[in-house]
């Protein structure tokens, strides 16, 4: 891919976000009822290619169960409020009422409470006893310390998640996590991320991971791109990871799932992420808008409360309906934020693709005017697509 000269000593590739591209209709169309949007990772099958992000404003034990019953997969943060406090509901209520000027500082205080090992086991047990697939996340720094109690409680899928996760972490202060050795120890699927490049995705796949999370900084609550200056626009990041998946499949015969993590707000965003090569999507802010969401209309990332360098913001997302309505409809708004599964199914049907795997091969094009062409009145009146 051609590089653009930034200056005499530096050049770089042009990268694209989901707003920069469009899915091209094909010569074939289908009935939406004939479209299959299910996906499977290891032995676990899901009706919806949707994971709930491991963020305290999005997934609680209760919403993980609700999402699981609707056909998705909720990922509980095992270093969040639900493993620091017996009952964090009062604190979640307080967070939703904080003045913006003091929100980050107060959240840093709330999250100073240490994680309790017994609560990790209890939360995983709650998920298991509900009958859903139990999935939860730990950071690379803490996974060795706390994964044992989670596995003993019956965890089905482990997510090792940080702002950026690599297969070659270097540290002078201690022995870093060896992902390849760690994953080989256990007979459960491990999902790792985030990553945003071909080479990093390929290295993570070579560790034995069942899936990789793709996305560095695209989330609505994340400020990593501003604080750290790092990131790759999501359409390019997903396509690069999909290329790494093809390379790894050729090398090993083993398929690793690409999960787009962040940067999606509407059904059209989800469709474009899958058309770029994703097998599934991890959603934060769209699910934080559910009436059942623990954030009560607010959403914040896992690094928002970092003690020394916060890299997230508590953002107001406005509750718009139930989790069922957001995922499965019906929609009473025309901006694409409800009935996300229906939008994906219709997008696939309109472009003639019957399965997620087929849709990954859809034609896309760079389309900088996609959001504005012919939308004068919507923009003037602040409705429809102008609500983005």
Overview of this protein structure:
- The longest helix has 19 residues, at 234-252.
- The chain has one domain: Aldolase class I (TIM Barrel, Alpha-Beta Barrel), CATH 3.20.20.70.
- The protein is built from 15 helices and 16 strands.
- The chain has 388 residues and is an alpha/beta fold.
- It has helices spanning 61-70, 89-97, 100-110, 117-129, 143-152, 179-184, 198-205, 224-227, 234-252, 267-275, 285-288, 323-328, 340-350, 356-359, 376-381; strands spanning 3-7, 10-13, 21-23, 39-41, 44-46, 50-52, 73-77, 135-138, 157-161, 190-195, 211-214, 257-261, 280-283, 298-299, 315-316, 364-366.
- It is globular.
- Strands 6-7-8-9-10-11-12-13 form an eight-stranded parallel beta barrel, surrounded by five helices. The protein has a two-stranded antiparallel ribbon with strand order 1-2.
CATH architecture name: Alpha-Beta Barrel
Shape: globular
Q: How many DSSP helices? A: 15
- Number of DSSP strand runs: 16
CATH classification, class level? Alpha Beta
Task: From the alpha carbons, calculate the radius of gyration and give it in angstroms.
Answer: 20 Å
Enumerate the strands of the largest sheet in spatial order, edge to edge or round the barrel. Answer: 6-7-8-9-10-11-12-13
Percent strand: 15-25%
| Helix-and-strand structural type | alpha/beta
Uncertain segments of ≥5 residues (pLDDT<50)? none
Portion of residues in helices? 25-40%
Q: Residue-averaged pLDDT, rounded?
A: 93
* Assembly context of the chains: single chain
Q: How many strands, what sense, and barrel or not for the largest sheet?
A: 8 strands, parallel, barrel
- Say which CATH homologous superfamily is assigned: Aldolase class I
Domain module tally: 1
Give the CA-CA distance, first to last residue.
31 Å
CATH topology: TIM Barrel
């Amino acid at each position: 891919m051609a590089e653009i000269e930034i200056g005499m000593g530096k050049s770089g590739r042009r990268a694209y976000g989901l707003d920069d591209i469009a899915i091209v209709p094909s010569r074939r169309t289908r009935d939406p009822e004939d479209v299959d949007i299910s996906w499977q990772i290891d032995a676990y099958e899901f009706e919806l290619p949707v994971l709930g992000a491991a963020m305290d404003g999005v997934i609680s034990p209760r919403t993980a169960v609700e999402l699981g019953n609707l056909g998705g997969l909720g990922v509980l943060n095992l270093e969040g409020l639900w493993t620091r406090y017996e009952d964090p509901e009062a604190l979640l209520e307080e967070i939703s009422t904080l003045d913006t000027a003091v929100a980050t500082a107060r959240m840093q205080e709330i999250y100073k409470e240490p994680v309790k090992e017994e609560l990790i086991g209890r939360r995983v047990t709650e998920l298991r006893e509900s009958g859903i697939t139990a999935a939860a996340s730990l950071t690379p720094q803490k996974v060795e310390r706390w994964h044992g109690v989670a596995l003993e409680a019956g965890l089905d899928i482990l997510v090792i998640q940080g702002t950026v996760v690599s297969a070659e972490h270097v540290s002078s202060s201690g022995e870093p996590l060896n992902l390849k050795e760690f994953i080989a120890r256990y007979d459960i699927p491990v999902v790792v991320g985030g990553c945003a490049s071909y080479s990093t995705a390929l290295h993570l796949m070579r560790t034995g991971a069942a899936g990789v999370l793709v996305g560095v900084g695209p989330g609505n609550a994340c400020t990593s791109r501003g604080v750290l200056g790092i990131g790759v626009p999501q359409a390019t990041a997903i396509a690069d990871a999909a290329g790494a998946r093809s390379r790894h499949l050729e090398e090993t015969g083993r398929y690793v799932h690409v999960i787009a993590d962040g940067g999606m707000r509407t059904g059209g965003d989800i469709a474009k992420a899958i058309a770029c090569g994703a097998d599934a999507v991890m959603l934060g802010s769209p699910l934080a808008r559910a009436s059942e969401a623990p954030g009560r209309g607010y959403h914040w990332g896992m690094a928002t409360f970092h003690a020394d360098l916060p890299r997230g913001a508590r953002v107001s997302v406005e509750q718009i309906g139930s989790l069922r309505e957001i995922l499965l409809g019906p929609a009473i708004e025309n901006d694409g934020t409800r009935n996300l599964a229906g939008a994906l199914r219709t997008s696939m049907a309109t472009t003639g693709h019957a399965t997620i795997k087929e849709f990954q091969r859809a034609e896309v094009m760079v389309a900088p005017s996609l959001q504005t062409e012919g939308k004068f009145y919507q923009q003037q009146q602040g409705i429809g697509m102008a609500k983005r």
